[in-house]
Amino acid sequence: MAETKIPFNRPSFVGRELHWVTEAINRGQLSGDGHFTRLCHQQIEAATGAGAALLTHSCTAALEMAALLCDLAPGDEVIMPSFTFVSTANAVVLRGAVPVFVDIDPRSLNIDPARVSAAITPRTRAIFAVHYAGFPADMDALAEIARAHDLMLVEDAAQAYGSTYKGRQAGTLGDMGAFSFHETKNIISGEGGALTLNRPDLVERAEIIREKGTNRSRFLRGQVDKYTWVDLGSSFLPGELIAAFLHGQLEFQDEIRQRRCAQFDHYMAALADLEARGQLRRPVIPEHTTGNGHMFYLLLPDQARRDALIAALRARGIIAPFHYVPLHSAPAGQTYGRTADPLPVTDRTSACLLRLPLFYTLGDDIDAVIAAVHDFFAEAR
Ligand SMILES: Cc1ncc(COP(=O)(O)O)c(C=O)c1O
Question: Which domains does the chain have, with CATH numbers?
Answer without folding.
Answer: 17-250 (3.40.640.10), 253-380 (3.90.1150.10)
